[in-house]
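Sorry, can you check?
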Amino acid sequence: MGKFIKFSLKNKFAVWLLTLFVIITGLYSGFNMKLETIPDISTPVVTVSATYPGATPEQVADKVSKSIEQKLQGLGGVDTVSSSSYENMATIQVEYSFSQDMEKAEDEVRRALSNVNLPDDVEEPNVSRQSISDFPIISLSVSDDKKSLEELTKYVKNT
């Protein structure tokens, strides 16, 4: 430590240059650094949702969820297939490894679902992928006790 102090006292110009160099590189790095509060992360998950109007959760699980799960478990690169059955609707999540090409995986899921046996009342399953960037970054609410919903909607859109 004593050698550093002696060097600093004898070489004021070198210390001044070193300080200036550190400040300039710090400012350069700070201004050129890419900052993202919510980075674009593509999760390796494909979601399938199917609507079965008028069905109980048990009927949805037996007639829709199980059929779709069985078709999707045999696809290449699939890590996990899980489902949730609700009244009138089934949601199936197909998880892949991060190295999987998700566009190709989504196409494979669509092809696998093209020949699945579902009851006639079931609407065509919807296949989708979600990303962090799909979610809104801000959500606003507006209320007014004196205006109707229609008037308030027009006011918000126009103003």
